[in-house]
Each structure stands twice: as structure tokens, then as C-alpha cells.
From TrEMBL:
Protein name, entry field: N-acetylglucosaminyldiphosphoundecaprenol N-acetyl-beta-D-mannosaminyltransferase
Family statement drawn from the similarity comment of this UniProt entry: Belongs to the glycosyltransferase 26 family. TagA/TarA subfamily.
The species this protein was found in: Aureibacillus halotolerans
GO biological process: cell wall organization; teichoic acid biosynthetic process
Signal peptide annotation: none
Length: 194
């Protein structure tokens, strides 16, 4: 997929529809995938912290999660087609997973938030397979979580652990699993749980 570089961060030049359809193919092929939904804060963090820059360079796709990114792309004369917000993409993917029978694992946020978010998803997308969830307060090297994911074999893993923490967790978890589209979704579970 073509990209537009903003301060060294390569953004996918894709509409929401194109992004979802690229991810649908990866899900069909059970191809391990790392998606970063990046807002201007993430771009600045990547500029300032080389470790974080290296971490997100490993992403298969970086989407423009914020109008600031779309405006910056326009200013440098390499426009991105539209904003591809993590929260909206998450909903598109829930709908897709419910329709195609793909399983979902949700990790992140406070315990009562994740419980509320899972209930909301089950209410909004009847029949969706949530094969596991857990709150986001754990040591990053906690091996029990990896074991849980290896057993559950989710097709889609949504990680809402906050910026940088979620990307770091995804990068260290991916080598231990055989499949899964992993996406960092920031504060999305808080919004979902309401
Ligand atoms: N969060 C988490 N574990 C942590 C820190 C944060 O699960 O160790 C969750 C937090 O509860 C919230 C989400 O990550 O649901 C996003 O947090 P925040 O808005 O602080 O992060 P940002 O993405 O703005 O950095």
C-alpha cells in the first residue's frame, strides 16, 4: 500500500473502506498483522523517542487517526484521502468479524471498563465471538496473557493500553503467536463502555 511520510511516520494512503478491505484479506489469510492508529501525539512521540519510532516502524499499516494528520499531509502536498479513526475502524471490524465468524480478543482499560465494553460489543453485534478479554493493568512481560492468546487463537486483537504501551505490547506479543490482526486502539474501550 502506498504511504505518505509525516516526520518519518509512513501513513497508509487509504480510505476507511480500503483499509478495512486490506484487513479483511489479512484476516482471511490468517496473516499476522500490526496496525498503528496514529494521531499527531504519536507522530511527535515517534520523533522524540527513537525506541518508539523503531517500534511503530514494524507496523504493517499506520492509519491517520486524527484530522491533524490529514491536514499535515495536505500541507506537505501529499494528501491522504481521509481520516481513518481507530474508534471507527474498530466498529467496522466488529461488524466484519460478526458477519464472517471471526473471533475477537480485547485487552486494555480498567476492569469495569473492559467488562462494560465487552457487554456493549455483544449487544451491538449479536453473535460476535469474543474469545477473551482482560484489563490493561499488567506487567508487559506477563507470560500468562500470551498463553491465553495462544490458546484462544483470536483473529482480531484490540489493544487499548494507551499510546506506546499498546504498541510495545503488540510488538513483543506478535512473535509468540501464529495469527491475528493486532491493533492499538487507545482510549476506545472507555468510549465504547460509555
Ligand atoms: N491503560 C491501560 N493500561 C495502562 C495504562 C492505560 O489499559 O497501563 C488504558 C486506559 O485505562 C485507557 C487507555 O489505556 O482505557 C488509554 O489511556 P490514555 O487515554 O491514558 O492513553 P493515551 O492513548 O492517551 O496515551
Amino acid at each position: 500500500m502506498e504511504t505518505v511520510s509525516i516526520l518519518g511516520v509512513p501513513f497508509a494512503k487509504a480510505t476507511m473502506q480500503e483499509m478495512v478491505s486490506a484487513l479483511e484479506s489479512r484476516l482471511e489469510q490468517q496473516q499476522k498483522t500490526f496496525v498503528v492508529t496514529a494521531n499527531p501525539e504519536i507522530v511527535m512521540q515517534a520523533r522524540d523517542k527513537p525506541d518508539f519510532q523503531r517500534c511503530i516502524q514494524q507496523a504493517d499499516y499506520i492509519t491517520a487517526d486524527g484530522i491533524g494528520v490529514v491536514k499535515a499531509a495536505q500541507m506537505i502536498g501529499q494528501p491522504l484521502p481521509e481520516r481513518v479513526a481507530g474508534y471507527d475502524m474498530m466498529h467496522e471490524l466488529f461488524a466484519l468479524c460478526a458477519k464472517r465468524g471471526w473471533s475477537v480478543y480485547m485487552i486494555g482499560a480498567e476492569e469495569e471498563v473492559i467488562v462494560g465494553a465487552v457487554e456493549k460489543v455483544q449487544e451491538l453485534y449479536p453473535g460476535i465471538k469474543i474469545v477473551g478479554y482482560r484489563n490493561g493493568f499488567f506487567e508487559l512481560d506477563d507470560q500468562t496473557i500470551i498463553a491465553d492468546i495462544q490458546q484462544a487463537k483470536p483473529d482480531l486483537v484490540l489493544a487499548a493500553l494507551g499510546m506506546a504501551r499498546q504498541e510495545e505490547w503488540i510488538v513483543q506479543t506478535l512473535p509468540a503467536v501464529d495469527q491475528g490482526v493486532f491493533i492499538g486502539v487507545g482510549g476506545s474501550f472507555d468510549v465504547l463502555a460509555g
